[in-house]
Amino acid sequence: MKVYFCGSVRGGREDVHVYRRIVEKLQSYGRVLSEHVSCSEISERGEAGGDRAIHDRDLAWLQESEVVVAEVTQPSLGVGYELGRAVTMEKKILCLFRPASGRSLSAMVRGAEDGDQFMVKNYREDEVENILEEFFNSLKNMKRT
Fold first, then answer.
1. Nearest to 82 by CA among 107, 118, 50
2. How far is the C-alpha of 96 from the C-alpha of 122, rounded, in Å?
3. Are 34 and 58 in contact (CB under 8 A)?
4. What angle do CA 122, 20, 37 make, to 5 degrees?
């Protein structure tokens, strides 16, 4: 399975350790096309290569993916854009939000939840592996029926 992972880059890198934990678990389900988001070497300035090249590469990966997992605790315009495009592409989407951060999740993300294509799960860091396991097991069960 090809997985597209979304997490903040230019919006802030405070949660990169959480992204690494998520990506490591996602790799047990398939190929994570955007695993670089979890690399601590990437700063808030982003990657080298130019904005157009990054945009085009990431959209190609998003198109190629079968499922999208987004950590949405750190607000990010890029993640919001990716989620909007993923909805248009009719991808299965799981958004992960940590209420303990003290932040409020955007109504545009929380309100998009439909329980089928677009899911939002509140979590604590120690729960993330179990939430991902439940999500990917539900995808397997959907394919069987």
1. 118
2. 6
3. yes
4. 95
Q: Which two tokens stand for residue 131?
A: 């939430």
* pLDDT tens digits, one per residue of 45-85: 767 778 899 999 999 999 999 999 999 999 999 999 999 99
Write the CA distances from 121 to 58, 65, 71, 144, integer angstroms: 24, 21, 10, 24
Residue segments in the chain with a per-residue pLDDT below the cut of 70: 43, 46, 143-145
| Radius of gyration over every alpha carbon of the chain, rounded to an integer in angstroms | 14
| Residue among 48, 82, 76 at smallest CA distance from 63 | 82
Q: Is 98 helix (H, G, I), strand (E, B) or coil?
A: coil
Rounded Cα distance between 107 and 1, Å, is 30
pTM of the model: 0.94
